[in-house]
Design brief:
homodimer, alpha+beta, Alpha-Beta Plaits, 4-stranded antiparallel β-sheet, 2 helices, 29% helix
């Protein structure tokens, strides 16, 4: 398992409810891919959402987000953290 | 106080030690601006670093990172989180 930060663009105007529902959609299926989404942060003005997860691979993160209806624009392994 | 996610590009090859030292440099001066850096995550291959903070403003985050020697390329207020 490794840590990943993924990024969604084009989310301008996202609301608290929409962020929570999107996160819930990930949580509902993440076990199929052995992914754990931990946090998500949104900038509704710039339309950017960052998601932090633990996952077996970048592809696993991508598949969960795609199946949940909000594919990620970038998925970065982040092996270093403080 | 609000939450911010800032992003540094061009950090390819960053090591665990370098990330820790950069974070320590922020922590050493952050109180001057009433900023609290909470976490940082690095993708050494893509050269991207994400930093999460609590701060009074985007400008305060920018000033701490600049004075610490590693200006941020983007600073996003992230008022929504899950």
């Amino acid at each position: 398992m490794a840590k990943f930060m993924d990024v969604h663009h084009g989310m301008a105007g996202i609301t608290e409810d929409q962020l929570r529902m999107a996160h819930q959609a990930d949580l509902a299926i993440q076990s199929d891919e052995n992914v754990q989404f931990e946090h998500a942060w949104a900038d509704p003005d710039a339309g950017v959402v960052y998601c932090l997860s633990e996952a077996p691979s970048k592809e696993a993160v991508r598949r969960v987000h795609e199946r949940a209806g909000h594919p990620a624009d970038e998925v970065h392994p982040v092996p270093l953290s403080v």
